[in-house]
């Protein structure tokens, strides 16, 4: 399948699609099977890429892989495969499927190889699509797959694994995104002392947790937040600065693989489960509950409250909620058992019950950082001294 043609870009030729197609041809010839070449460039542009650039222009950091799996691979491509007479649709994802004997929806499970598990990217695909799907690599490690490929004499056996966003290729991301999103320089502001540290190249080129790349400073600074309206990128010194960590977040428009929320949430009870806020993050424990409405979030914002045992919520001052926050099919409040680094608006927060992937929700904004909590404690102590 072809989703992107780098030759259409300024200075094109960045994608490896042509080489990938040649490799696929050689593998099919070796195995004696027919290769079908399907073009989804138009559909990918309208259903994946336009959303990707729009979200970046809003200061978010979307993940196009989840949209691609939902709208292209496990929708258009799956449908085409079945129309061509396929009994099953097999892909090379490192994930597993479970088909309950008592009936019920197909469950998505994490792959055996924890380092290569790709269930995170499949969390936006519904169980109905999985009915005709096979993941033959899900029960194997990457090393075992390479050994099998070598034993079969496949030309791709030693091919380097793909990484990153396919259409970006080996370019610097800021060079790529500047072709599609208007970039306006603005200030880097250090959260310690509210000092300016020079100019960034454009807010869309930065995401939470990444090294800011500020020249002329003695130690590396990292992005801890963004103020899109004022074109400010907030930074802090050191990869473990407390401004990078928080214990809560709000996520919007949750998608449940089974088609409905877990029973605890349906009954109005909090759900204790595991989560990933980015690919290859280790599973961490959290508690999830529905927020009644975005008005409730706004009220708690204006009051400056974030009660541990209430549904009221306050965001980080370094990352105010976007004006486009929508209720959709619900807003989730997530409380992390341990402080979590670089909770990034626009990224998928994927929930798990053991190995079972429950679904995904898009992070709207993180709660107050540990740095802000520490500041508040210092202010309260100072206020008590002055009384």
From TrEMBL:
Keyword Nucleotide-binding: yes
Domain tRNA-specific 2-thiouridylase MnmA-like central: 174-236
Annotated signal sequence range: none
Superkingdom of the organism of origin: Eukaryota
EC assignment: 2.8.1.14
Chain ranges passing through the membrane: none
GO biological process: tRNA processing
Keyword vocabulary terms for this entry: ATP-binding, Disulfide bond, Nucleotide-binding, RNA-binding, Transferase, tRNA processing, tRNA-binding
CDD domains: MnmA_TRMU-like
A GO term, aspect molecular function: ATP binding
Domain tRNA-specific 2-thiouridylase MnmA-like C-terminal per the UniProt entry, residue ranges: 330-363
Catalyzed reaction equations: 5-taurinomethyluridine(34) in tRNA + S-sulfanyl-L-cysteinyl-[protein] + AH2 + ATP = 5-taurinomethyl-2-thiouridine(34) in tRNA + L-cysteinyl-[protein] + A + AMP + diphosphate + H(+)
Family label: Belongs to the MnmA/TRMU family.
Protein's job: Catalyzes the 2-thiolation of uridine at the wobble position (U34) of mitochondrial tRNA(Lys), tRNA(Glu) and tRNA(Gln). Required for the formation of 5-taurinomethyl-2-thiouridine (tm5s2U) of mitochondrial tRNA(Lys), tRNA(Glu), and tRNA(Gln) at the wobble position. ATP is required to activate the C2 atom of the wobble base.
Protein's UniProt name: tRNA-5-taurinomethyluridine 2-sulfurtransferase
Organism, as annotated: Physcomitrium patens (Spreading-leaved earth moss)
Source taxonomy: Eukaryota, Viridiplantae, Streptophyta, Embryophyta, Bryophyta
